[in-house]
Each structure stands twice: as C-alpha cells, then as structure tokens.
Amino acid sequence: MKYSVGVKFRNLVGVLALSLLNGARGQVVSIGPESQSMKEYCERVEPLGPNLILREATQITGRITDRTTEPFRRSAVELRRFISATKQVTVKKGATDDEGKFDLGIVKRGQYRFLLSPNRAFKQAEKLECGGSKKCTLNTILVANPTDQFTTNCPIR
Predict the structure, then answer these.
(1) Would 17 be classed as within a structural domain?
(2) What CATH number is attached to the domain comprising 54?
(3) What single-letter DSSP state applies at residue 70?
(4) Domain span holding position 97
(5) 131: left (phi over 0), alpha (psi -120 to 50) or beta
(6) Do 101 and 63 contact (CB within 8 A), yes or no?
(7) pTM of the prediction?
C-alpha cells in the first residue's frame, strides 16, 4: 500500500513539474481597482455631484442618527465647496456632540458636498434640502454601507 501511494504521489509531482517546464500558460486578469489607479477607479464608479445647494447665506444645523435612531456621537462632519466631480475644497469642519447634533454656523450661498460620515461605514447623503430660508436644520438618518464592495477602499468624497 505504501508503495502505490508513493508512486502515485511521485507521478503527480512529475506531471506538475513537466507542465511547468513545458510552458503551461495562464493569464492573470485584474478586475477592479488594480487594473487602474485607485483614484481613477473611484471617480469612475462613484460619480459625484453637490448634495447641498444653498440659494442664500444660511445657518446650517442638524442631527445625525442611524436607522435605530442612535446618534452619531462626536463624529466628524465636513462641508466642501463643490467645484467639480473631481475637485471639492473644504470650507468647514466640525463634529457632532453627544446627541448627534452639529452647528456649522452661517454658510455662504453655493453648491456643496456635505460629508456626514467620516468614513465609508455609512453612505453619504445624496441630496440635502434647505429650501430658501436663512436657517436650515438637517436631521439625517445614515444607512450602513456594504463592506464587500471595491469602493470600500475609496476615500470618502
């Protein structure tokens, strides 16, 4: 019994070695971010637009919770002036308090990208509405992102 197993194993090793020596060929195909720069990949799969448009100078306040109504405690928020899908400039940074509330103060009219989650654990708001008043309260519920997507490694934008 030992002899036949040893022979079979040697034969298998021999076949593998011959395959490699005789030029067994294969092709590695990269799908996803490895096939291009991460920045280009992220820009292609996640097109952006402004998610907050202010028609006049407006005081921006609000509260951020998850679907269970738990507040985002001491969580960073960032307001960026939207210039293009590939360029935004940070205007204000802040953080929520223990109740998930934030106050950015008065923000000039314009188009903005308002990031309510500091990482990709939660989806960013697609559209935030302020109407035409000089004071706007944004009470927002963030939804968890799937963690098995290629975009998981993209920076938040």
Answers:
(1) no
(2) 2.60.40.10
(3) -
(4) 48-153
(5) left
(6) yes
(7) 0.70
**Pairing of β 101-107 and β 58-66:** antiparallel
> How many C-beta atoms lie closer than 10 Å to residue 34's C-beta?
11
Please compute, for residue 81, the number of CA atoms within 13 A of its CA located in the half-sphere on the CB side. Answer: 7
The angle subtended at Cα 31 by Cα 28 and Cα 34, nearest 5°, is 85
Counting DSSP H helices and E strands in the chain, the numbers are: 2, 7
Whether 84 maps to a domain, the answer reads: yes
- 44-82 confidence digits (pLDDT tens): 777 789 999 999 999 999 999 999 999 999 999 999 999
Nearest to 45 by CA among 35, 56, 54: 35
Tens-digit pLDDT profile for residues 32-41: 545 567 777 7
